């Protein structure tokens, strides 16, 4: 077993701790597995009522995923990058290859997370009924769209921000600052109105209204497009100097 | 060796150091001033904790490491320290860097907290920025002082004077900042991946807060023992437990480094 | 055939001029040497040729058979640029395999053969973080030639290598030249330049000046 395996095991155990801990519930009353999914990934609420534990679990899950990519990138974008890039012949081709890998991993991660949460819920006696009892006008479909689709878009946003920082700034101090900012950007005190692409996949953002859900999706898509344009501009400038 | 440590400290007390301290102080105060318009606070203590308690508790380990450990990491990465070995025993060099790192990080955070304290207690009352409404909290001039003594951990020291509390609390935060910088220092020596070494103090901090909270041991979580503003007062000794444990781990790591100095790849 | 043309290239970094209207032509099937004092821009020239950085003015023209329109980097180029780059936690073979898997043109046996040619044991379990500088340089050399790259851009290829290895690799480069490959290299060792190079360019006054290889430079 390598050090990377220990890292994944530790990360997995933390996720399990959060999913199973009875203390990680913003409020009581969960009866179905979907309630568990809603409450465990509550994150940060734009409507008031901040739970440190929910915020931390959210950070560990999502920013933790980004952190792993950041660790990979800070090592990858070094002197050996020349020998990788020359084999792809274009930065776009290399980036698409990397992007596909990361988007696939992000999607799998979310599916596994949702599945494990539901299974743990069933094992702990939650009802499999297709309702979200803690928020009466919220449907399971909306919850799953928020968790899976918006969750994936949120992760992709984070991955792009991490990539841009690592590409532009070679010094680890900037990557460290980026990690800090990505963590606190989700806080309602900084992200009033939810206009930053941070924390938007928190289930706390769900109100049961389709308009709110679609608005989150659109914000994340727009930000993602902006980030891709920034990356295209950076690639066009072509200033590859890693050592 | 004390002379060399002081020399190292003096050399690192650069304009950049002061500018960083000033910038962070300005950002925290400005943010608090901006946010305080939407809140009703009890008193200057509330304003002081309000200023600190927004983003600093989360970013604390990152800032601790950014003060000086990051430049030490660069010295290792660029093999500057390797070439000091011909001029001075490496153990001495590491000792000097360790203590300079710790003292400067301590100074940075001590000055930060004291500045925020002075602003909250002595400057803000002159400017009248915050909205104070102690009556809204059921407090009167008779009971407000007693309330402050029991409000947060360390406010017990308010009994001995406001300045006493300010200095003691600033010392405590400074010590913890030095500790996290020391954790980063040790990791930079032990780990090849520079970014991993510098980010692990933050990871340990966040994971520590989460794990202890999820297991019901909230009063020992690092964010609470250093910034005890989101919970009722705990005895001061509870704050010393995580500090002591981490200090013991750092001390143990330093002993390990000293015993295995010849095997450390980062110093060759 | 003109393989690479440096046409009126100017480049500066943070106000420091590296090249000013520099010109050079690299023909196929020759070995070229680039000479210059430290910091004169040898690595910058290689990065410009490989497309990792863009000139402020001028152009680097690569023959169409080595660079398609949409590509950022030329194809079939083997390079050694700057310091050796590698994944420290992997063995030499594993590093080479990772690079080879990108284009999937060669098999494990080809990688192992290349490692033996440069003087490395392909079955060694040692991770690259424990390699000496010379061994890391050999890995860099191996990745530059393992896929039968026809154009080699080599920045100090013999750096930190033992005498025997240098001799073997010099002979290899001469053999490659006889096969029609093009090699551009830098070296601080006059002997490398005199033994290998058909043509030498010296970086002088921010330009690439052709010099006689047999004359002392």
From TrEMBL, chain A:
Keyword Transmembrane helix: yes
Keywords on record: Membrane, Transmembrane, Transmembrane helix
Residues that span the membrane, as ranges: 6-25, 37-59, 104-124, 144-169, 176-196, 216-235
Domain of life where this protein originates: Bacteria
Protein name as it appears in the record: Uncharacterized protein
Automatic annotation (TrEMBL), chain B:
Domain of life: Bacteria
UniProt KW Membrane keyword: yes
Residue spans crossing the bilayer: 17-34, 54-77, 98-123, 167-191, 198-216, 236-257
Keywords: Membrane, Transmembrane, Transmembrane helix
Keyword Membrane annotated: yes
Protein name: Uncharacterized protein
From TrEMBL, chain C:
InterPro entries from the UniProt entry: AAA+_ATPase, ABC_transporter-like_ATP-bd, ABC_transporter-like_CS, ABC_Transporter_VariousFunc, P-loop_NTPase
Domain ABC transporter: 4-217
GO function terms (MF aspect): ATP binding; ATP hydrolysis activity
Gene3D superfamilies the UniProt entry points to: P-loop containing nucleotide triphosphate hydrolases (3.40.50.300)
Any matching Pfam family: ABC_tran
UniProt keyword list: ATP-binding, Nucleotide-binding, Transport
Protein name: Multidrug ABC transporter ATP-binding protein
